[in-house]
Design a protein that fits this description.
By secondary structure, this protein is α+β, with helices and mostly antiparallel strands. It contains 15 helices and 20 strands. Helix content is about 30%, strand content about 20%. Helix 11 runs antiparallel to helix 12.
Length: about 475
């Protein structure tokens, strides 16, 4: 993030603080352990696939890249063993890995058609979200909401109910009004609320377990611009006003700063006609935050307090950061610092207490955490395996830098979410398996399993991870 031109760059301040802060002694890094290793190249083995977080990998014996739906069906029906689809490889859970067939949807990308009367658009499933915005804008349309990062493919984002924030907005899957599913028996199945409604309800969070999504029909709106205002504030002030702020803003979220009483509020609303497009993000600021943390947090007795003091000096009193532009540019944020992520959704009324408990645990257990904790709201839906099924949800996202071992940190925090009937994001790291997950989805769990069985009775689309989480 950057400040307005009239303010001092937060990155500059952090960089200066990092340079002047105490340099840690050798071996005193808050978390010296290495992360789990991704698969290396091994002569004689197939080229490895590695996800963006570098915490999952595989050696697929076959890679397919169909250029049209006919090739997609041919590849899907003729492939031996397990077939898994892959988009941008941004899932942190093991949804993709297989040593059999990996099928990329990269060539199935672009705008198929649009209807200016209904404001609907049909888009190829492999379209990356960062391409989706400009494609829709070219025909005067825009998505109603977007996730806060735009690297995934559209079909991949729908597979896991990927979401943004906003009291009145559900996940991206709630904007889907129809899709085409390529099935293992060679069909192209068009599903919607009118055609095969049960399959449609399952396919809007499909996990890649029902077929491969080739096309998606979205309910859009006319293209629009947004203005985002970010500001450093006391965290407790934001939490005390949370309901009001969620109601007053089209989108609202909080970034809580561990070991600090501060947080960052992000309020986003439709721009005024007179507002000029402005503002760019500063993705490097996150690394400066980490450098400050690692420079001082190890100091016995005073490290955490010194870190909080440095943050207050760096951020306190700075003017708000303002960005204005097309909706798709403002809603999505750059994610150039590699990390691994755990995310849980809890009932919205439990969100503030859950966040406080997470932050308290980090301090009490002296956990190596300086990555901001993202806190958002998502509207309820009735999609079978959506994390927001039947309840408005508060979503807490926990991150660790990609070159550190996330496992000890996440293991300390995850049980807190279980206390609040938390549902894990399907595309992010969690430890739950079928019995615990089934209890979290009492309404539709068996329905989803029955539909999966009817579409793929031999489990051709199931890898080890999916067999564990679905209990197949």
């Amino acid at each position: 993030m950057t400040s307005n031109s009239s303010g001092i760059s937060r990155r500059t301040l952090l960089k200066g603080l990092a340079a002047s802060a105490t340099v840690p002694m050798a071996g005193c890094s808050p978390n010296p352990a290495s992360p789990p290793l991704a698969a290396p190249y091994v002569p004689g083995k197939p080229l490895p696939w590695i996800n963006w977080g570098k915490n999952h990998s595989c050696y697929p014996s076959q890679r397919l890249a169909p250029r049209n739906e006919q090739q997609l069906l041919q590849g899907l029906t003729q492939a031996k063993g397990t077939v898994r689809a892959v988009g941008s490889s941004h899932a942190f859970s093991a949804l993709v890995p297989t040593d059999d067939t990996l099928l990329t949807t990269d060539y199935l990308s672009g705008l198929v058609s649009h209807d200016p009367a209904t404001l609907q658009a049909e888009v190829w499933g492999g379209t990356r979200l960062h391409s989706l915005g400009p494609l829709l804008e070219s025909v005067g349309l825009a998505t109603q909401n977007l996730p806060d990062m735009d690297y995934p493919s559209l079909a991949g984002a729908i597979a896991t109910s990927t979401h943004g924030t906003g009291k009145h907005f559900g996940s991206l899957s709630t904007q889907v009004v129809g899709l085409t599913l390529a099935t293992v028996d060679g069909q192209l199945l068009d599903v919607s609320a009118q055609q095969h409604p049960q399959i449609f309800n399952a396919a809007r969070t499909h996990l890649g377990a029902l077929g491969i999504v080739s096309r998606v029909r979205l309910q859009c709106q006319s293209a629009y611009r947004l203005t985002e205002v970010s500001q450093v504030e006391p965290l407790e002030l934001m939490l005390s006003e949370l309901e009001q702020r969620m109601a007053q803003n089209r989108h609202f979220e909080i970034f809580a700063l561990p070991y600090s009483p501060l947080g960052i509020s992000v309020a986003t609303n439709e721009a005024n006609a007179a507002d000029v497009n402005q503002g760019e993000e500063d993705p490097g600021a996150l690394n400066q935050l980490r450098q400050v943390f690692e420079s001082v947090s190890w100091l016995p007795g005073v490290g955490e307090s010194l870190y909080a003091w440095l943050l207050d000096k760096a951020f306190g009193g700075n003017p708000p950061v303002v960005r204005t532009g097309p909706s798709y540019r403002v809603l999505a944020h750059a994610r150039t610092t590699r990390f691994c992520e755990m995310e849980y959704s809890v009932p919205v009324e439990a969100g503030p207490e859950c966040l406080r408990k997470v932050l308290e645990t980090i301090v009490r257990r002296k956990l190596p955490a300086c990555f901001p904790i993202e806190y958002r709201h998502v509207k309820s839906d009735d999609i079978m395996l959506s994390m927001y099924q039947g309840r408005d949800s508060a979503v807490l996202s926990i991150h660790q830098f990609g070159d550190l071992d996330y496992r000890p940190f996440f293991a300390e925090i995850e049980p807190i979410f279980h206390q609040y009937e938390g549902r894990p994001h399907w595309g992010k790291i969690h430890s739950l398996q079928a019995p615990q997950l089934a209890a979290l989805y009492p309404k539709h769990w068996q329905d989803f399993l029955a539909i999966r069985e009817s579409l793929d009775p031999n489990g051709k689309l199931l890898n080890t991870h999916l067999r564990q989480v679905l209990g197949v």
